[in-house]
Amino acid sequence: MTIQFSESAEPIEIEADAMLPTEYGNFRIRVTVDSYGKEHSLLYTGNLKSVNAPLIRIHSECLTGDAFGSLKCDCGPQLKLSMQKIQEEGTGAILYLRQEGRGIGLNSKIQAYALQDKGYDTLDANLALGLPADARNYSIAADMLKEMGVSQVRMMTNNPLKIQGLEENGISVLERKEHISGMGQFNKGYLATKKSRMGHML
What we know:
35% helix, eight-stranded mixed beta sheet, alpha/beta, globular, 8 helices, Rossmann fold
């Protein structure tokens, strides 16, 4: 099934939608393929159109944090917390975007990690590699929400760029919900950089 929202929007392919029981509760998972061939997921529960503004989180893929439990970031705990919060809410969604390392990819992310081991902060490590501080794009997230009939949301995030990214692509963010989890001794510098240099609300 191909969805086209406007002349400027990229079509998205809905490849699959199935039940996904998890340790946090039962979800459905919907896989979307964008025009670059990347597979993104919508993990949701309830009828998103049945509420005025469903609770959502945009979560960028983080193999090291989500799968391996890295303590260098707060990604894994944030993902788990969002799953818990959505189950408590009864209706909501996580948009899991294939934008590893703020969009620079896994290989470049690990190269940046190596520079961090030498004392660079997370932002300067990217810049030293000739990479942008944040290469993510949220238009696909907006398209995925629109395909589900959602035009306004309440959003779990500490990152104002995610709010801006949705609103610039036609999704109204009615409320920001603070989303802090996974802070520890190994990611103090990472989180401090997010706050002081990237505008995160921590």
